[in-house]
Amino acid sequence: ISLPINVFGYNSTHGDNPTIASGNQPVISTGTNTWTNGTYWKFSYITVTGITTASTYMIIGGLADFWNSCKIIHTSTGRGILTSNGHYMQNCELDGRGGCNLLFAVGSAGGALINCYLHDATTWIMFGTGGYFLVSSCIIDTAINGLLINGTQYTCLNNTIVNCSVGISITASAAASHIVNNIISYCGTGISSAGVYDMSKFYNNNL
User: Fold this and answer.
1) What CA–CA distance (Å, rounded) separates 37 from 63?
2) pTM for the full predicted model
3) What does the pLDDT average to over 152-167?
4) Secondary structure (H, E, C), 31-96
């Protein structure tokens, strides 16, 4: 099988590319199971729902997987939606329905979240553990921590973060992260840093 492996949804005709807003994406229900995929998979124009109790995460992605224009809904209390290493996601929506404790976790290979809507988690919207990661042009809404940054090379650019107890939480190991041109509003604390943060990499933010 040639890589990448492409999984794409359509409404009535191949290539009609139903958007999230249209409500016409095919729905894959995982039930209480865990979704696991291999390396170099690409998913487009699908909606995935689940309430897994079998794993910490509903979806365990493979190295360098890619999601485009997909919606993922997970309602299991105390679980996470997705974890991956080298994960890329754009134009997607992650909905924790107020029950998930974590929407997105990324490992040491890094990745990117671009133009995504992530909302309604009980603890964290996104948790990073290493590598280079880009969060750009995302809306992050309703959690205890909007972004919990725990890697050495993170860039948070042009995001809107609202309704979180802490908008961006930076650990001591993430002091070199770039935080640029973000809007952080209706949060108890805009930005919290556990270490000495390099302020030359923090600018044009609206708190």
Assistant:
1) 9
2) 0.91
3) 90
4) CCCCEECCCCEEEECCEEEECCCCCCEEEECCCCCEEECCEEEECCCCCEEEEECCEEEECCEEEC
